[in-house]
Amino acid sequence: MIRVELPPHLRGLARISGEVQLEIPGRATPRSVLDALEARYPMLRGAIRDHVTQERRPFLRFFACGEDLSHEHLDTPLPEAVTSGKEPLLIVGAIAGG
């Protein structure tokens, strides 16, 4: 069971509160988690990753176990603490300004 925490604007879009728990068949990677998340909540398609390129949207970041996974390849296996359900995968809205 993979635990995923979404930023407030994505929770609102998907009409969920709190953490999402997903069963991921096979190897858990950011791509497989996003595939499962978008399958369960179709309204999130295009909000986390681009429809065409499937790349992460610029103002969203992925974190797990205190590490920024945002620039890792989407097929990189997630840490064991995430795949075991001990730690969540965090999808965080980045802050920009000037």
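the 2nd protein, sequnce then structure:
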Amino acid sequence: MELLHTKATLKELKEKYKGNEVYEKLMKKIEQLTQDEEFMGYYDLEEKHKWQINDSYETGVLVGVGKGIEQGKHQNKLDMAKWMLKKKMSIKDITDATGLAKEEITSLK
């Protein structure tokens, strides 16, 4: 797992695991793969695909969260306006307090 998550260079890893046959074979194979153009092409395509998926997910989530927050704020204003109407407050005072349009407030009655 260390080899998969390390930021060390291949040279640093070779030095660290010098004398360990298993790691030396593994690092030799990694070195061969990094020089294989076909393998690197697959790796690049996979990385590009991951980036595209993450980007589209993050964009969609952020847009959705933003819309949800705005809808929640608007609903809060509507709820406040309904409460103010029940307390017999004037339309003007409700408009001033909530920022809602007069027509929107009168439609709540």
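The radius of gyration is 30 Å. The helical segments are 2-5, 10-16, 21-34, 37-86, 91-98, 102-106.
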